[in-house]
């Protein structure tokens, strides 16, 4: 998603790396720190990230520092297809420039991957509750373990299956529509026998 040739050799002493020198193959963590460096204390930035950044071993020290110093406010998993032309479900990292140094912050974890029809509302509602002081996960034992894996699904209980008649009917109708459209896209198929095509 991000360019791997991001200038690692030329920028090793850059003052933007407050949370650690980004590893050569972790350009995303360079962009995270670049965004933070442009914020005033208390300012917020939202960065679209590939999901692998949340758990790559090479970036765990920087992820830990982002949590310990209160610079990471939320990680929100988006549904597959919410961003056009992307083959993976991306995540939003909500960053906030700490007002003071060394103050661990709460981290909101949201997974909207199973809510493609209303993911934006689900994420916005979760953020509003978080800002009001609810739904905060402590940056303690779980987030700051050896991996510092920031994948929301790792910390959230799976939602209960919605088997309401309306949802089942809606899913059935979507599948039936998909099958109908697929049939319209497939040309008439013939049966080949001894080199001669016979219509089915």
TrEMBL record:
GO terms for molecular function: methyltransferase activity. Residues 2-117 form the DNA methylase adenine-specific domain. Its EC number is 2.1.1.-. The chain crosses the membrane at residues 70-95. The keyword Chloroplast does not apply. InterPro entries: DNA_methylase_A-5, SAM-dependent_MTases_sf, Type-I_RE_MTase_Subunit. It comes from the Bacteria. GO terms for biological process: methylation. Keywords: Membrane, Methyltransferase, Transferase, Transmembrane, Transmembrane helix. PANTHER family: TYPE I RESTRICTION ENZYME HINDI METHYLASE SUBUNIT (PTHR42998:SF1), TYPE I RESTRICTION ENZYME HINDVIIP M PROTEIN-RELATED (PTHR42998). This is Class I SAM-dependent DNA methyltransferase.
């Amino acid at each position: 998603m991000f360019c791997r040739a991001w200038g690692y050799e030329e920028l090793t002493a850059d003052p933007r790396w407050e949370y650690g020198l980004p590893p050569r193959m972790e350009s995303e963590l360079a962009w995270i720190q670049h965004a933070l460096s442009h914020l005033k204390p208390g300012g917020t930035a939202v960065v679209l990230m590939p999901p692998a950044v949340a758990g790559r071993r090479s970036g765990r020290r920087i992820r830990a520092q982002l949590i310990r110093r209160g610079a990471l406010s939320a990680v929100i998993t988006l549904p597959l297809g919410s961003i056009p032309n992307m083959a993976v479900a991306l995540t939003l990292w909500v960053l906030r420039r700490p007002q003071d140094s060394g103050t661990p912050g709460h981290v909101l974890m949201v997974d909207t991957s199973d809510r493609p029809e209303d993911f934006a509302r689900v994420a916005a509602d979760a953020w509003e509750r978080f800002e009001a002081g609810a739904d905060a996960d402590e940056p303690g034992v779980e987030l700051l373990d050896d991996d510092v894996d920031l994948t929301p699904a790792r910390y959230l209980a799976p939602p209960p299956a919605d088997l309401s008649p309306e949802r089942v009917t809606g899913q059935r109708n979507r599948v039936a529509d998909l099958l109908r459209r697929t049939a319209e896209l497939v040309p008439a198929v013939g049966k080949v026998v001894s080199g001669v095509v016979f219509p089915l």
